[in-house]
Amino acid sequence: DAGVIQSPRHEVTEMGQEVTLRCKPISGHNSLFWYRQTMMRGLELLIYFNNNVPIDDSGMPEDRFSAKMPNASFSTLKIQPSEPRDSAVYFCASSSPGNQPQHFGDGTRLSIL
Amino acid sequence: ILNVEQSPQSLHVQEGDSTNFTCSFPSSNFYALHWYRWETAKSPEALFVMTLNGDEKKKGRISATLNTKEGYSYLYIKGSQPEDSATYLCAPRREAGKSTFGDGTTLTVKP
User: Fold this and answer.
1) Does residue B110 have a pLDDT over 80?
2) How far apart are CA A39 and CA A31, in angstroms?
3) Is A74 exposed, middle or buried (0-12, 13-18, 19+ CB in 10 A)?
């Protein structure tokens, strides 16, 4: 049974470039979450979707960040333009309806030079 | 956003010691609480789903209890082993709301 799949695993790019992170949730899960892990703030929720609809994006740092979920099996997190302070590990997670826990992908380690 | 507090922030124990951590959260409108285990360089993995006041869950040497009336959950590890070294996160959730993760307790078990 495939888990949450994130790509790429690692991304190194220069500041100012557009970065797109991708996530495929577990089939049948109706909630999808994007998190950022930093040393200072731990695991920080950026945005979450329920049935492909963004419910809470209050954690998105600024307008440079955007997320979409065009269908139940795919989501993207985009940073444009990227800055060195965006360097972090970005996790995607999904969960099924009810009180079930979240299942996390392996994360994307992003480095902005 | 829920105010979730986990204590202690970090813990160093010797192999064979038993230990416990605390997760505190607002008790109003409680829906569920999840415990996760997060090993270095990996992603968080769910340990327990807890929903009812008085719930007790167990997986091997790890167990957890829940008190929804006073707003806390305890995680216990009996006879800690080096492979138990990880950060343990709790994530309570209110009805119709998202889970809020605590900052975690980082456990280091020395051989």
Assistant:
1) yes
2) 26
3) middle
Residue A66 one-letter amino acid: S
Is the CB of residue A66 less than 8 Å from the CB of residue A83? no
Residue B6: phi and psi, rounded to 5, are -120, 140
Mind listing the pLDDT tens digit for each residue in B9-23?
A: 999 999 999 999 999
**B49 interfacial to chain A (CB closer than 8 Å):** yes
Tens digits of residue pLDDT in B21-55? 999 999 988 999 999 999 998 999 999 999 999 99
The two three-digit tokens of residue B51, written as one number: 């929903």
Question: Which of helix, strand or coil describes residue A84?
Answer: helix
Q: Which of A112, A82, A93 is nearest to A23 (CA)?
A: A93
Interchain CB contact of A101 with B (< 8 Å): yes
The answer to whether the CB atoms of B44 and A56 lie below 8 A apart is no
**Residue A95: closest CA among B71, B49, B57:** B49
- Taken in order A80, A82, A86, A87, is the CA torsion positive or negative? positive
B93 touches chain A (CB under 8 A): yes
| The pLDDT value given to residue A104 | 97
* CA separation for the pair B13, B20 (Å, rounded): 11
How is residue A62 written in tokens? 């600024």
State residue A86 phi and psi, 5-degree precision.
Answer: -80, -5
